């Protein structure tokens, strides 16, 4: 009893640091669990259910059982030398400039940790960071943990023309509204193109506008490009760092998980000028210090292959988007057919659909302040076995309530999975009409 008394006394003050206030909720914890418990078909969280390419898994096998036992030990802190070297070569090609693998490239535990390093390294107490909505949800808590203030600016949907389906390109920034968000306090803007969750691929004009404002107000750009290879319909992914005045103020974030369909490996990177990268390295060396050597070795080999096959039909970066475009089209058709109006994504492996015609399917919960899209996705996974993610999870608290009629699906799935989703939707449609 003496022990429990003293424990209790110690617990009477808050144990958590102030920086954790109001960031303790995380949509993924809840929805991943719901999907694991109820889903027959999981189109929720963003990961492929098809295998990673053979050349990548073979590279891992070779690294594991080959002669170099040092691959089981620590490697260079900021990135395994073969990986930073090949990333530098690759990005030299993409950006048209010389890069130093040791100072312009840093490897992290997924793009997630690369992002965390950016915010910790570049954002101070009192700094404002502009975030374009809808956004990959971790940006907001990461800015707050660094002591910064997120400032949100929404992509605004323009109604589609003559009854056609909407495209992610119909969601646009209002230039005056965007400009109004830049101030003396603005330290950085987060850009995510191709965008999760909409699949929007920002045009040269849109990027030009953002770049102009960054230069005018001396603002940094954290450019999350993890879906850089997943662009459809002949569209082109443009790197904002290649626009005038932007290299010096941009950190590019990438992910082997997304690039090589191996999200569980958690290998990501940041590419940028040393004047920014040196501070990312300080965060890195004082937090994670080092990422799994063997995964870095295999990813390096994957990139060496892709460098050799660059632009050729055998390249995975050419093949994967082709396959995914087909899958996108199937899911678009499945959803359109049942009246869950899809917004056709130009990139990524996500697709947002309009569920406003399904309100009568979902029982009203009296006095609930849970938004419709949350109630809908929970109801759908429990009653139909189909998992998705509510779109309002990708909005700030202030703007959430304007976007509760949409849900996000992931279509990086085996054809059989997409067919099973279609079967669920078709059955549902029949039940509704009978
Ligand atoms: N950025 C975006 C936009 C993402 O969608 C994701 C993963 N869902 C990440 C970063 C994190 O990538 P990683 O798995 O490499 O940490």
Automatic annotation (TrEMBL):
Keyword Transferase tagged: yes
Coiled coil: none
GO terms under biological process: kynurenine metabolic process
Record GO terms (molecular function): cysteine-S-conjugate beta-lyase activity; kynurenine-oxoglutarate transaminase activity; pyridoxal phosphate binding
Top-level taxon in the UniProt lineage: Eukaryota
Pathway as given in its UniProt record: Amino-acid degradation; L-kynurenine degradation; kynurenate from L-kynurenine: step 1/2
Cofactor(s) for this UniProt protein: pyridoxal 5'-phosphate
GO cellular component: mitochondrion
Keywords: Aminotransferase, Lyase, Pyridoxal phosphate, Transferase
Domain Aminotransferase class I/classII large: 40-421
A Pfam family annotated for this UniProt entry: Aminotran_1_2
Gene3D superfamilies linked to this entry: Aspartate Aminotransferase, domain 1, Type I PLP-dependent aspartate aminotransferase-like (Major domain)
Catalytic activity: an S-substituted L-cysteine + H2O = a thiol + pyruvate + NH4(+); L-kynurenine + 2-oxoglutarate = kynurenate + L-glutamate + H2O
InterPro entries reported in the protein's UniProt record: Aminotransferase_I/II_large, Kynurenine-oxoglutarate_AT, PyrdxlP-dep_Trfase, PyrdxlP-dep_Trfase_major, PyrdxlP-dep_Trfase_small
Protein family per UniProt: Belongs to the class-I pyridoxal-phosphate-dependent aminotransferase family.
Quaternary state and interactors: Homodimer.
Name assigned to this protein: KAT1 transaminase
Native species: Rhabdornis inornatus
Lineage of producing organism: Eukaryota, Metazoa, Chordata, Craniata, Vertebrata
Gene giving rise to this polypeptide: Kyat1
